[in-house]
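Researcher: Let's do a round of design. I'm pasting the structure tokens now; please hold your answer until I've finished.
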């Protein structure tokens, strides 16, 4: 999946430009645009790889730390949930602190949290360290793009730099399973996290060659942020716990009650805050709400399938981590190519047809995987993943551009952050739901659960495709008259 410019810091309240404090004077010759691009790309790449590389390491983590399926789901979702929830206000934080300062803190915390993951003596420790990783990643992502915008004043050069940033993230997401498999097989699952340490050190050194960043007065929304985290965590806990302990477990209704109360608190907080991190009026705009629904369903399908196939290859097919990771190479290649192709197709055919075609292909990919069993030829499995990569990578860049056109310039950062947060939430919830289905109340890998998960994902994508076609048809109707 391609990443959008979710880190663009922008004011959401002031009708006129807000005062910007001058950056501290740096030594002549020490600020380098290329250094800013390199550090932004490295940081963005490493936090994106962590989203997918860990999926291949899960069986090894389970064997080493003796965690059940619920523990493995939390290893994935602890990172994704904090990444999603805190991203809502990370742009404002980067504005207040300055992009370089926020990026430095985010990378340092991510590196330390990675060390904590690598040293984890048990599944609980690992989940806690993953929470810290996700929180740090939510700061790194918007600040990385802000550094590029600051370093490149020429619009053409900045556009090329942002294109490299986006493609780098796409490659990292697709190549994560491959790298995760190779590291797990050759050096153990802890190496997946230890790799982040030298990368983090290089980034911190290179940051000294980037220009100091200005600070902008942006209000924070602590009440909205806390209630958002509680709502997402409560809902995810209820799904995971219900799938493994049974829906009659006392913890399930308690978690659902927390999620509902926190969700209501979030709505109240956003209505009362003078500069909410998620303006409720934005949800009523079709140009915003439609991309949010599509992005949620698309990420749920993609992340859910990557999670399940990582287990399928190793637990059902008995493949090594390296072999399982290499099975994702065709997917990585097709995602990269499709991401490069999508903007050109959108320019030639229009964004709406490209989005619709991407949704149709992605939905068809879910159903095409239904015949999978323990004897399906591996070349066929790899081939069946190609439509999933094509569909998602075609739709997301055009969908992001459509969202940006639907909001005024001063709300671009807010809308992008919300879009990314909703997408990551879709991925987190799919891991929770699909993991419970495939475990089937036990700790193994049940093929009926895999097929049910694929049916759920495919049906949701079919529904969003029909909704998209209806919405686009309504937009054309006045013009036809």
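Researcher: That's everything. Go ahead.
Model: Designed sequence:
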């Amino acid at each position: 999946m391609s990443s959008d410019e979710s880190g663009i810091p922008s004011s959401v309240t002031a009708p006129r430009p807000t005062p910007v404090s001058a950056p501290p004077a740096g030594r002549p010759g020490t600020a380098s645009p290329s250094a800013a691009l390199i550090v932004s790309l490295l940081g963005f790449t490493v936090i994106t790889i962590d989203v997918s590389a860990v999926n291949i390491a899960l069986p090894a983590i389970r064997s080493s730390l003796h965690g059940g399926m619920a523990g493995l789901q939390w290893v994935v979702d602890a990172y994704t949930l904090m990444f999603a929830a805190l991203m809502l206000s990370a742009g404002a934080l980067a504005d207040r602190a300055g992009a370089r300062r926020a990026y430095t803190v985010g990378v340092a915390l991510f590196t330390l949290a990675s060390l904590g993951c690598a040293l984890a003596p048990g599944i609980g420790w690992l989940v806690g360290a993953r929470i810290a990783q996700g929180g740090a990643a939510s700061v790194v992502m918007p600040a990385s793009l802000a550094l590029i915008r600051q370093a490149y004043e020429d619009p053409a050069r900045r556009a090329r730099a942002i294109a490299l940033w986006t493609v780098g993230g796409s490659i990292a997401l697709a190549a994560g399973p491959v790298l995760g498999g190779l590291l797990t097989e050759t050096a153990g699952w802890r190496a997946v996290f230890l790799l982040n340490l030298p990368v983090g050190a290089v980034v911190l050194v290179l940051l000294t060659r980037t220009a100091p960043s200005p600070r902008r007065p942006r209000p924070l929304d602590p009440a909205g942020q806390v209630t958002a985290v509680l709502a997402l965590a409560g809902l995810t806990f209820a799904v995971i716990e219900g799938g493994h302990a049974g829906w009659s477990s006392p913890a399930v209704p308690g978690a659902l009650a927390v999620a509902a109360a926190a969700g209501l608190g979030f709505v109240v907080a956003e209505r009362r805050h003078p500069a909410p991190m998620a303006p409720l009026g934005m949800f009523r705009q079709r140009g915003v709400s439609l991309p949010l629904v599509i992005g949620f369903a698309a990420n749920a399908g993609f992340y859910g399938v990557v999670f399940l196939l990582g287990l399928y290859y190793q637990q059902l097919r008995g493949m090594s981590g390296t072999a399982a990771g290499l099975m994702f190479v065709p997917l990585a290649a097709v995602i990269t190519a499709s991401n490069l192709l999508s903007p050109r197709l959108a320019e030639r055919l229009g964004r709406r047809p490209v989005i619709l075609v991407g949704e149709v292909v992605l939905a068809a990919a879910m159903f095409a995987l239904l015949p999978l069993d323990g004897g399906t030829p591996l070349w066929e499995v790899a081939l069946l993943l190609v439509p999933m990569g094509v569909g998602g990578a075609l739709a997301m860049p055009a969908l992001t551009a459509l969202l940006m056109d639907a909001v005024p310039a001063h709300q671009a950062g807010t809308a992008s952050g919300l879009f990314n947060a909703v997408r990551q939430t879709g991925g987190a919830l799919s891991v929770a739901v699909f993991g419970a289905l495939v475990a089937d109340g036990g700790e193994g890998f049940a093929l009926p659960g895999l097929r049910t998960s694929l049916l759920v994902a495919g049906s949701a994508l079919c529904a969003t495709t029909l909704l998209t076609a209806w919405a686009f048809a309504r937009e054309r109707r006045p013009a036809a008259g």
